[in-house]
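We modelled the chain as a single entity of 291 amino acids. Its sequence is:
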Amino acid sequence: MIPFNEAKKMQMQESDFSGLPAHTRQFVERIHSDGLDRVRIHGIFVMLGLCAGAPDTQERLNELFKTLDVAIPVDRTKNIDEVVGDVYDGYDREIHEFCYRSGFEFNFREIKIPNVEKIFYIVELKDHGLFNVDTLSIEKLVDASRLYDAFIESIGSHTANRGASLVEAFGCGMFQIMLLARSDISGSRQIAELIKSCLPLIYSQYFSTLRGNSVEYFLGLERGQVPLLSLMQPMRMDYAQQMWGFQSSLFYQDQKPLEGVDSLTVQDWHDWVLKKAIDFDAGYPTQLVPF
């Protein structure tokens, strides 16, 4: 039997969905069924708030919230601290350790206090022992995956344990980055840019889905297709189209989903992909674009 506290961490609560539109709830239920537990889903929403709340031009903010407000409606006419004051307890230590373990160089503003010799910054690059990882730089996809998993679990536990909604979790992230921006606008932007620029593929697609309010399209994807979208976005159009055609052959036949693909072992999946690659090459011998 799973202990109650562990089950609460894993399973979504009705309170999580308070204030969420029906289509965003469907998105959350989908990523939960795909294996993301409740705490990490809270972490995703906090992390999205950290990025969305960073200072930017009014034009860019208007463009961002034009779609984001549809997915996560937050009343931005209210002071954000009024919205999240009862559930916000800060993410400073998590941000400090995340920035430290990223290995990135930052240019934070010096904060000087009268009659105090020490110089302060909005982030103290330090290992607080919060993350159960040994990552000290993001050089490979595996580094990003391990660090972000630890980060979202840590920041997600705050609002999840308090019984807050996902809308409130998003607001908490916004409030945190706004507080940092009061002392260092450029520094807060650097933190948000770091988070966005190093996202693992699947988290990147979660972000894109919510920021672009493209939930309906997302729900039509097979689980294995989700990270491939982010992988192909930087590619040349002709190569991306070819890659999308190939990956479709991994999941579909005659436009119908293939059964059992999601349950393949790693070795069986590798063998399946290799077989389909050979078939795809044989089927289009003169049309394929070189990698």
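As a brief sanity check on the tokenised model: Residues 141-161 form the longest helix (21 residues). The mean pLDDT is 88.
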